[in-house]
Design goal:
heterodimer; A: mainly alpha; globular; B: mainly alpha; 12 helices
């Protein structure tokens, strides 16, 4: 009866929120039971050691913040990518994708919930890499804590949005896992995850500005280094804007893909 | 009366029936078919090769960050050579797939021993791994200051082949162990690969680590073959020193091959005894 007096948009919003919540809870359960989904968190400590060792071997302790930040960002992107690909692919393999799409709850909402859960868990990568570095005697101070936390929040938002856009792409293809693999290291380079994009050739730099990670990595790195943070507002706006664009594209593509596969009957293995 | 046709796969080999090598050769057919089903020439080139080359460049760029051309070269060679080992480690994934797809019990029940089947099952990764490192080292490498003379280049290619075959031994043993603990299959592959990156001289020299870590590194064939390739790139002629490293890698890998074969036979024996080989996990 409550539903009857609520405006349509409120009902839709509540339904969407339920979908997000269901997806989130489902993903958290899945993560607990599937060690493979946590692979990036398992490899992060070793990768931290790899990057820290390179810096220490070259006597460049001053670059320790780069070495500690990179594995955390790798975890963030890797887990988002894995979820966006595996979510659709696993449902497809399981034969449950059709049921999920046909269910009354919004499919994009369920996917968004799952991606949100993974993004939240992947933030543990930051704690891991900082802890591992500290264990080997490399302590990286957070010089601008406010900027650091703010940068993490907007980065998490943009990561979740990008993953949604990728999930939309993966609904349309049966080669999701191949794409997943391909979209790792090229993005790490363009995102300046380890090496700032200023070190790349000039002709690539404009392209890097379309990758939210390039803004995120730059801002987070600045928050770890002494000296004032340059272009704070510009960085935050760019990250949020790229996130919003990804979300809009993702939402649109998912709806479009669902309409197409419903019409053509090509969603599953048939 | 209709003519009888055989539905048995065509495993034409001159090797005598009942021999282990016949099973190995037959199993390689599966490997090539698997590879053809996974990649097209276009998806391998643009997708797989592109991704690996990006990975190699990612590590070389750290050298730029350090402001050292020598480090660019060092990291580039390490990452390029590691690509061969990394691909070879995919043996674990393709081997364990037999259990996921429910064919392991059939293999255990067949007259052939288990180890020849798995020895040939994943050979597709050998040429693929050698090819990616070859492109990275010889085609893109010069852009990062990595150059070889013709003779050293040919010798390096040979060492890459040895690296792939010797790392295959390690991966073969790992696959045999992981077949008992399927949930760890991706962990085993990824942790092995990053451990190699960490301690085998890929990103920092072996001497960076304490002696006990160096001893662990010696268990990876790449530790020895990578030293040989670095010597060749530096222009050291393939003399006894280089051959010594290659020979050590071969000896280390023989131990891994034996461990793998014995583990697989034990898996089959214990599976028959207690019925622990189920059709799928």
């Amino acid at each position: 009866m409550t539903t009857a007096i609520l405006p349509r948009t409120a009902v839709a919003a509540r339904s969407y929120a339920r979908g997000v919540s269901a997806g989130l809870r489902r993903e958290l359960r899945e993560l607990r039971r599937s060690p493979d989904r946590l692979m990036a968190l398992v490899t992060a400590p070793l990768l931290t050691l790899v990057f820290v060792a390179i810096m220490l071997n070259n006597g460049r302790d001053d670059l320790a913040p780069y070495a500690v930040l990179a594995p955390a960002l790798l975890v963030l992107w890797q887990m988002a990518l894995q979820t966006s690909g595996d979510t659709v692919e696993a449902e497809r393999e399981n034969g449950s994708l059709e049921a999920l799409v046909a269910a009354p709850s919004s499919f994009p909402a369920v996917i968004a919930g799952r991606i949100l859960a993974v993004t939240a868990v992947s933030m543990l990568g930051f704690a891991e890499s900082w802890a591992v570095a500290a264990l080997v005697g490399v302590r990286v101070a957070i010089v601008h804590p406010g900027v650091f936390v703010g940068a993490l929040v907007v980065t998490a938002f943009a990561t979740a949005c990008s993953a949604l856009a990728l999930a939309a792409l993966f609904v349309r293809t049966r080669a999701a896992r191949a794409f997943q693999n391909t979209l790792t290291y090229p993005f790490y380079i363009l995102g300046g995850v380890m090496v700032p994009v200023e070190f790349l050739p000039d002709w690539i730099e404009p392209l890097t500005r379309l990758v939210f990670l390039s803004w995120s990595s730059d801002l987070i790195r600045q928050s770890l280094l002494p000296g004032p943070v340059q272009g704070l507002a510009e960085h935050v706006v760019a990250i949020v804007l790229l996130g919003v664009v990804s979300c809009a594209i993702g939402g649109f593509l998912i709806r479009l893909a669902l309409r197409e596969v419903r019409e053509s009957g090509t969603i599953g293995h048939a | 009366m209709p003519e009888r046709t055989s539905s048995r796969p065509d495993v034409s080999t001159r090797l005598p029936r009942g021999t282990a090598w016949r099973a190995v050769v037959a199993s390689t057919r599966n490997a090539w078919a698997d590879f053809a089903a996974t990649f097209t020439p276009l998806s391998w080139t643009l997708g797989w090769l592109g991704r690996i080359v990006a990975q190699v460049i990612f590590y070389a760029l750290i050298g730029s960050l350090l402001g050292s051309e020598e480090q660019v070269r060092y990291l580039y060679i390490g990452a390029a050579v590691l690509a061969t080992a990394m691909e070879t480690l995919l043996v674990v994934s393709t081997s364990t797939r037999e259990r996921y797809s429910g064919t392991l019990p059939l293999l255990v029940a067949s007259p052939s021993a288990l180890w020849p089947v798995f020895l040939g099952r994943s050979v597709q990764w050998l040429p693929s791994g050698v090819a990616t490192a070859t492109v990275a080292l010889f085609v893109i490498g010069p852009g990062f200051g990595v150059t070889f003379t013709l003779a050293d280049g040919v010798a390096t290619f040979g060492v890459l082949v040895v690296l792939a075959i010797t790392t295959y031994g390690y991966a073969f043993a790992l696959a045999a162990l992981v077949l008992r603990h399927m949930r760890l299959r991706n962990w085993a592959t990824n942790l092995s690969y990053i451990a190699m990156m960490l301690v085998s001289g890929v990103t920092v020299p072996l001497t960076f680590w304490p002696v006990w870590v160096q001893w662990i590194a010696f268990a990876f064939p790449i530790t020895h073959t990578l030293v040989a390739i670095r010597h060749l790139e530096e222009g050291v002629r393939p003399g006894l020193h280089v051959l010594g490293h290659v020979g050590t890698a071969v000896l280390v890998s023989l131990v891994w091959y034996v461990i793998g074969a014995v583990s697989l036979q034990r898996l089959a024996a214990s599976g028959r005894r207690d019925g622990s080989i189920e059709f799928a996990e």
